[in-house]
Amino acid sequence: MNYLIIDNIIKNALIEDIPNEDISTNCIIDEKSLSTIDLICKEDGIIAGLDVFKRVFEIIGDIDVTLYKKDGDSVYKKEKIAYLKGSTRKILLGERVALNLIQRMSGIATLTNLFIKELEGSNTRLLDTRKTTPNLRILEKYAVKIGGGSNHRFNLSDGVMLKDNHISACGGIKKAVEIARKNTSFVRKIEVETESLEMVKQAIEAKVDIIMLDNMDLETAKEAVRIINKRSITEFSGNVSLENIKKIGEIGVDYISVGMLTHSFKVLDLSMKNLTPIKRA
Which of 96, 130, 153, 174 is catalytic? Predict the structure, then answer.
């Protein structure tokens, strides 16, 4: 991960949550007060974002964080994941931002891992998409990897993907691919989105590197894989769920991309509990 970007994410989140001061804490907690507190898991899952959680308190300062787990570990209800010691005010200052980030990341890793388990025994790899929370993409795509998935494009500068609107704008797959090859580097692969067997055949004739089978029913997608016959990398996309991903993998596609990994996940329930003031001698 790019830690300069992550620091900016954290700092912007802190500014959003604390535009001036934490008036609730500052009106009742002495600035010299010290405390300890635990990070506790309230449900089973896969943990992701521990270093991001820790970094929130490093940026705030005057807090030591001890991690008991590492990203990718399974965690269980009531398990202690981390221990914090330091300024009471600053622990409370960073609590919500730190939890928001690690809960989201762990939720994504947990959901990704469920999809990965459905694909066990196949050669099909799971991909994420660009359907991410604005400004949190780097964290969310990292969480997908921690859950066992792989990353598709990070952004529009990352690769050539000609979707339905690109194709319509150019008047067809053949023309769109010709223009793309003329105007992009030869080292870049070209992916084309197809919605029918006729479009698949056009993509094969255009010798594209990757053919996306978009929103196809299983029988059509299976026939598309047969027609392609490994002449291009295949990717299935659209309406993928935990209930059907295993069957999709069985048709022999190389990749399956799943938008819900980063747009319809449930956060993993984590909490900072057991705050205990440290008595001064």
Answer: 96
